[in-house]
Specification:
Two copies of one chain form a homodimer.
Chain A: H1 19-23, H2 56-64, H3 66-75, H4 77-90, E1 102-103, H5 105-109, E2 112-113, E3 117-122, E4 125-128, H6 140-144, H7 152-157, H8 164-171, E5 174-178, E6 205-208, E7 213-215, H9 218-221, E8 234-235, E9 250-254, E10 257-262, H10 264-269, E11 272-280, H11 286-292, E12 305-314, H12 315-319, E13 331-339, E14 345-351, H13 352-356, E15 363-368, E16 371-372, E17 382-384, E18 397-403, H14 410-413, E19 442-447, E20 453-454, E21 461-469, E22 476-482, E23 490-491, E24 493-496, E25 510-517, E26 524-533, E27 558-564
Parallel strand pairs in A: 1-5, 9-18, 20-27
Antiparallel strand pairs in A: 2-3, 3-4, 4-5, 6-7, 7-8, 9-10, 11-12, 12-15, 13-14, 13-18, 15-16, 15-17, 19-21, 21-25, 22-23, 22-26, 24-25, 26-27
Organism (chains A, B): Nasonia vitripennis (Parasitic wasp)
Pathway (chains A, B): Sulfur metabolism; Energy metabolism; sulfur metabolism
InterPro entries (chains A, B): Cyt_B5-like_heme/steroid-bd, Cyt_B5-like_heme/steroid_sf, Cyt_B5_heme-BS, Ig_E-set, MoCF_OxRdtse_dimer, Mopterin_OxRdtase_euk, OxRdtase_Mopterin-bd_dom, OxRdtase_Mopterin-bd_sf
Chain lengths: ~575, ~575
Amino acid sequence: MFRNSHTLVKFYWKHQLNNHFRSSSSIFTRCGSSFHQDRNSENKRYSVYSALSLSFVGALSYYLYKDEIKNYLIENHQVQALRKEAVQEEISCGIRRKDLPTYSSEEVSQHDNPNNGIWVSYKEGVYNITDFVTKHPGGQNKIMMAAGGSIDPFWMVFANHNKSEILELLESMRIGNLRSEDVYKKTADTFDPYALEPVRSKILKVNGKQPFCAEPPPPLLVKNFKTPKDVFYVRNHLPVPIIDIENYELELAVEDDTIKTLTLEDIKKYPKYTVTSAIMCGGNRRSEMADAKPLRGLSWSVGAIGNASWSGARLCDVLNGLGVKEEDYNHVQFEGMDLDPSGIPYGASIPISKAFDPRADVLLAYEMNEEEISLDHGYPIRVIVPGVVGARNVKWCNKIIFSKDESPSQFQQNDYKGFSPSIDWDNVDFKTAPAIQELPVTSAICIPQRGERITVDKNGTIPVKGYAWSGSGKKIIRVDVTVDQGETWHIAKLVAQDPDAKEGRHYAWTLWSLDLPVDKTKGSVEIWVKAVDSAYNTQPESFKNIWNLRGFLCNAYHRVKVDLV
Amino acid sequence: MFRNSHTLVKFYWKHQLNNHFRSSSSIFTRCGSSFHQDRNSENKRYSVYSALSLSFVGALSYYLYKDEIKNYLIENHQVQALRKEAVQEEISCGIRRKDLPTYSSEEVSQHDNPNNGIWVSYKEGVYNITDFVTKHPGGQNKIMMAAGGSIDPFWMVFANHNKSEILELLESMRIGNLRSEDVYKKTADTFDPYALEPVRSKILKVNGKQPFCAEPPPPLLVKNFKTPKDVFYVRNHLPVPIIDIENYELELAVEDDTIKTLTLEDIKKYPKYTVTSAIMCGGNRRSEMADAKPLRGLSWSVGAIGNASWSGARLCDVLNGLGVKEEDYNHVQFEGMDLDPSGIPYGASIPISKAFDPRADVLLAYEMNEEEISLDHGYPIRVIVPGVVGARNVKWCNKIIFSKDESPSQFQQNDYKGFSPSIDWDNVDFKTAPAIQELPVTSAICIPQRGERITVDKNGTIPVKGYAWSGSGKKIIRVDVTVDQGETWHIAKLVAQDPDAKEGRHYAWTLWSLDLPVDKTKGSVEIWVKAVDSAYNTQPESFKNIWNLRGFLCNAYHRVKVDLV
């Protein structure tokens, strides 16, 4: 697990922080958050050193630009607002309770294994999470890092825990109070890992603040065949890393051994390929599945998808001449420069056959829609794995590993997987399901939106627009729409598809449009859409039978009820 | 259309007729049926010369072995029985009617175009089929071959027309009687193209007699991971050709120009590859879709699928060194040695990228389950296109054409395609849908069968078994079974998968099994099954919303109602 321990104290140099600094032409350098693991036998707590553990270079840059950072934080209303909301949500959990006993951090630390019970502290509270550990949606390994210690520093990074339902769940496991002098304190110098995220377009609806997860409004999504970067959904899993582009290197390794390093310029020397590919989050449309039955995960509407042209070096070209043989390994792992509190990078892997196959079009992309990839979308290098779930299209990639094994990352092992509807958090075993790679066929109505009042035109129709997409390079061949529960299906016009896609490599989405006949006298209609791909796979009708505990693969018919006037 | 006119008078030599002749060690030679097109300006009828038009060699062989043929026909009860039934079905149509006028064949022949109206004769009847031509399920081109003439000889080959509903439909277009002296007469020497079909295993349930289409009983299907040849479904489109193996050649052509020919021995010189691949008919499970709403096509149950290992040369190896460039063409067409009455061979095509891709595992197979491929399954060469509908896995292949265009065959152009449920025979335009290639995910329950009485065992379960498969090389990752309409899903055990399949190339089927908990007190249960493949595509719930006029792609949940005792 600590193969990447060399990254534990790692400093980044900023290349382009955000538009704010760009426009004021500030030269800005920032050090990333860094966490140090201190696991001595006496006190098995994780200590988090942030500013405190800054190395010389990092510290120097921090202090040189401290005022700029402070000013930035004050000026950046968006970040401030987010933090304020987060704080408000926290108030119901971790407050001292008079009805419970008090424990020292030493006592808590003795409960770091199943035999003694697993305890953690959060603010002033002490919790027995023994029974919950195996059910932790983020994986057992991750939650065990906090065993016997404070979860506060972890939740600074995995700030998506700051939700009422999670705080409530934690509080239900409360067993006591933490001795006042042992309560984890954010020091004045603690560097908030999310303080310097890029400024985002106000267009996006924010589903998760830290890490940042946001999607555009559906009608905007279908305005362009290629989604502009500011409209393109963002699904980060960790704080956005700060990129020291001057010293950027992509490391290529076979298991634990580095075999080559490439600078950005080196990567740009390979033939430049362009592929238009949609990228979709595995949880896109989760809100609809959650309507069928509650589940855990960010509440995405239909916007966790975007379509862009990506340009860069083909991975198969980079692999060529390395001396690595496809048959000797099973997987190609990618690591991002975004780190979790223990210094482990975001990671994912794909089958090695896809990496070696020139027809799979896997890219080390440095351009998105003919421009340098923006920070939120993976600058300087994002791995593009066309037809495959967003989670494997690794942003900020700085390491590629050929391995017998899949990525050890929890996002590969214990997160992006699908299960039978009968599997719940009490009986789930993540090992029984394969990591999601290629995605099934889906479609969505973006215009109109649920609950809208639509004027029926003189021909008795209403305009309906949306997208359709299938993984694995399958082309969308038909989109069917009904307003009478399938008694009559209307065939939509496919208004935009990639004209340059090669046979079997239709990675871009399809935009569709239809003047849908409706009966105005009904007052309202429920519009259903389903798409069919070139393997004639089509969507399941309803969410009930594809429901899964993490809310992935939400590709049932999209149903939108609207009022007619 | 008549690119293949050189095949019009083509004679076959038998290699191995059937087990009957094999066991009696007969040396047997047979000529195939041959049809000659006689389209002079005065009489645009198609004349069918069978024994009459035999060339010297064919005639010689026929007369040399006439008695053997006769004896064979007498002895072969199966063939006799089939013919008898076919004759019985014909009685309701084409009989002289006193209420209608009489026309000469000369008068009929003047009605061979839309301007004059399109007439045909059948036995003693004359029919105006003008309005039906565009709705002909077998394609407009095919039916127009009989325009102005007799359809009798065509129906000898396309004997699947001998069905009450088709005869009834024809009779509804009746306008008159044909002059007695012009009525088409099968001469004593007419060679029945179906007279010498291989003798088939009695195991198979016959869905179509001529051409032969048959499937095994479901419980037998899941007895073996590799389906034995006598249990493997047969879906022929034309009479089985007689193979002159001594003179067999596989012709490779670029558009109209032959660039190479290979003997069977030449093909066997390429490296031998083995791929285990299921082959499924595009109409498998059609009977269930027809239950939802009537449609046209053979009534397949769940048995129009089989799984076998196929060995032969990889097509990509054969293409290597030919000088044909993938980027110069779009499709690779295959022709079989089975001919229609006008001498046009069965044909199909696949995208050229699949032919050139070593990872697509397209084979020119000469072995099935480690034995020489039997006559019914495509001896001597069957093209195996793993993951792709059976219709493109061309049997008896003797020609491969690199082309800008798809196969002109009606089976490519106007047959194996999927449509929206709203498309019917009045508004269908076959050009609007792509030819079916890769197939969607499916599954079926083979044990128990519908209506069976099943004894619930002491644990309160019943044994359930079946298969699951997905095209495109997608692996089956899960099979879910329910007896309460999806309230509870039970996960089946995947008992057999191809252990040698490479990542993304899982072409074999998966056999699954489950001891399914049931409530005996309910008296009966309806079992539903759905499979999930490695792209997490799953099956649609019901047939209503995937219904299509030809009854292809019948992959909704399989539902089997049984009684419990």
